[in-house]
Design goal:
Chain lengths: 390, 390
């Protein structure tokens, strides 16, 4: 059993009637705010107006960085950092999904560097302990960025998509109103749901000999939540209970409650970040394509019991003493969930992706060394997994 | 589904090799520390010496409040507050179980009042937003006080045992090394384990229509942890895995992870606090006596499905369509766990308690109004439950 540090300081206001607390939380920190958001859906659904009015009424001065991309670019974060420096911004307010929040974190970190450039922090793997405070208003259940200390930033010039981490990147406050995700398109709902699922499964398989039963069971509960509620939210976008379950699952999946002594794995995330970096595809979709293949690839007598257990506990398959057969059925059930229930296209070729960069992507994903986990994976392994996804 | 605020800021160092971080965490706050501890078991097992040496080596000045009682008295907390005022203490360091940590919180709150008296805060139900910072070194898995915002303080002159709550009472840092609980006697291990169990069950029964499936399943996972590991820790006091599972369950049970939108119930705790206030019995033992009787008393067609589910999910009973019969079996299984597995004496009369104060206790427990929960309970109900415990 491993030692661990548990620190989960983000304060979350969850529910329908919480946004009124925004001004008081901002005013604890300052009066000059950079609002960060994406393509403007928050202008269509009224959230922008609600927030702007609240801030104006409370004498909070606002500046704006809009047009954050789905895989947020370092150049966009840098643009925000320049505004922060010029306008002496006190805090960064992200309004959107994971990409927007990630970008806001990049802005917050870069704003306190001399040259306002986030990329050296990202590419050098700097652990960020100094950043402007971030407050997040979440509109999409997916990345967990609303309460964790991570941001993923893309550099399209170098085809790199890399995580930036640090204790200073944990939002000080997050607002999670499931209603804000009502207008999310079905495809985005499905992709977000699988992102949540994968955050847990990437970790689950390492848990066997490292952690508490309780944590393993928590992980299964979160995955079951996704399996149960994602299809409901897809069919009934304004089903509050479905949106709420997904939103809280998003936060629980990465706020370290499910870690406690486990070694946090990220094989699928590393595989997928390369796909997004080269092809700018939707993260959750890439994960759905990669995950069942990864499981198939790592399946052997040692990993079979854990994969078999996933089938029983998460997909309700019958218990069996034949772990290998059970594991194969579990992978089938997962594939069925991804490609039928969530309706995501199953192959890279469906997204216009061929073998052209597989070797580069595999090597790049392993640039920091072999990928740890229940089964160590090197570049040859990853290339093989990419081929299975074609 | 209810709105809620989730805030769980305590930083926990969990495991065998973490105490070395104590000086750096103290020095972030100050250099003058009041060490609070109980009857001296930390002197026997070496923990006192370890901590004192670490603090001395780092130029941290220490003062002491020792002899904290199992049901900590307001007079003891006040003694500590006077030391804080006189010696200009920067932070209160609790070393012990829940009683010691609760007392330290009382000290921390009273130290910042004009007259240094904790009792007006307790008796007036003041929500404490100003207190000296508390760091906790936990030696007993039980109350959850190491990461929550509550303290229970007793006034033996008035036979009152009351909770004091507040955001300022959440320890800023907690150290949880399961080895520190190795020397805990079997009886205390059993009582602590049932305290954990009850923190969850007091909440579980309210969850049905108020919260996420995920949270209900988290609650069951924590209760299963207690059922599985308490008997192991009792038989093998130095079983690290058992002590670690209980310790993390203690923190998870009350650090608000299991709350998320539920209405936090506390019927059994209110019933028990009266017993401790009048008879100074061990809290966890009182809870074990009260809980099965409370379940029996509230069992009806409306509550049966939840109680039946407890039997299936936590005690591994067979699923049944007859909820009433299933619930009865669940209560039997719980009684068996309390009185056979944990070995706690089943009746109040075993502890020398008679009917003499039942009416007073019942009325006092309801002084703030009927006890909410799946079934509202008034003084007559509580008196009846006490009688069932004889």
């Amino acid at each position: 059993m491993n030692d661990f540090i548990f620190h989960n300081p983000a304060k979350v206001y969850f529910g329908k009637n919480q946004i009124g607390h925004l001004p008081e939380e901002i005013l604890k920190i300052g009066k000059r705010v950079l609002m960060v958001y994406g393509g403007g859906s928050i202008k269509k659904n009224g959230l922008y107006d609600t927030v702007k009015k609240l801030l104006d009424e409370n004498g909070i001065e606002t500046f704006e960085l809009s047009g954050v991309e789905p895989n947020p670019r370092h150049t966009t974060a840098n643009k925000g950092a320049q505004i922060c420096k010029k306008e002496k911004i006190d805090l960064v307010l992200a309004i959107g999904g994971g990409s927007t929040i990630d970008c806001a974190k990049g802005v917050a970190a870069a704003a306190l560097t001399d040259d306002g450039d986030v990329w050296p922090l990202v590419s050098n793997g700097v652990w960020v302990t100094k950043a402007l405070p971030v407050i997040a208003i979440l509109t999409n259940a997916a990345t967990g960025s609303e309460t964790d200390g991570w941001a993923v930033i893309s550099n399209m010039e170098t085809n790199e998509k890399i995580g930036l981490g640090g204790s200073a990147l944990i939002p000080v406050v997050a607002f999670e109103n499931p209603e804000y995700s009502y207008t999310l398109p079905t495809y985005q709902t499905a992709c977000g749901a699988f992102d949540i699922f994968n955050h847990v499964i990437d970790n689950y398989y390492l848990a066997g000999d490292a952690t508490f039963d309780m944590i393993l069971e928590f992980q299964e509960a979160v995955m079951r939540t996704v399996v149960k509620w994602a299809p409901v939210a897809m069919k009934e976008p304004e089903n509050y209970e479905a949106r709420a379950n997904l939103m809280w699952a998003s936060s629980m999946a990465l706020n370290t409650v499910l870690d406690a002594g486990t070694v946090h794995g990220c094989a699928c995330h590393l595989l997928e970040h390369e796909l997004s970096a080269y092809y700018d595809i939707t993260h959750g979709h890439g994960l759905a394509i990669v995950t069942p293949r990864w499981l198939k690839y790592i399946l052997d007598e040692k990993t079979a019991p854990a994969i078999c257990r996933l089938g029983v506990k998460v997909f309700g398959l019958a218990e069996t003493t034949d772990a290998m057969a059970g594991a194969e059925k579990a992978i089938e059930a997962l594939s069925d969930f991804c490609f039928n229930t969530l309706g995501l296209k199953p192959n890279l070729s469906d997204l216009g992706i061929g073998t052209e960069h597989f070797r580069d992507m595999a090597e790049h994903a392993c640039a920091g060394g072999k990928i740890s986990g229940l089964k160590e994976l090197g570049a040859d392994d990853l290339e093989e997994i990419y081929k299975m996804c074609l």
